[in-house]
Design goal:
By secondary structure, the protein is an all-alpha fold. The chain is built from 4 helices and no strands. Helix 1 runs antiparallel to helix 3 and helix 3 runs antiparallel to helix 4. The termini are far apart.
Length: about 90
């Protein structure tokens, strides 16, 4: 097992654990749909940044990886929002 394995596992567990907290707040009405959507897709750049820092990528590589992740988050934001609204409609009806 390499030296980066444990930090990567911790990063993934933190991202998974915080999602359930956010979901509870969203279902209770304390988070808007927009904020909940950005918290969901914001995990992509957070994971990319954490990964890049943990494995020790060069600064240019770090910027590229995080830039691609931010672009992916912006592209996936409408999809995530549609899914959230579908869940909200299903819960109401």
């Amino acid at each position: 097992m390499s030296a980066t394995t444990f930090p990567l596992i911790v990063l993934l567990l933190l991202l998974v654990a915080t999602r359930s907290l956010e979901e509870r707040r969203w279902r209770a009405g304390r988070l808007s749909d927009r904020v909940a959507t950005w918290l969901i897709v914001g995990r992509i750049p957070a994971l990319a940044l954490g990964f890049a820092l943990i494995v020790g990528l060069a600064p240019l590589e770090l910027v590229i990886v995080v830039g691609v992740a931010v672009a992916a988050a912006f592209l996936l934001q409408p999809v995530a929002r549609t899914r959230l609204l579908a869940v909200k409609a299903r819960d109401r009806g």
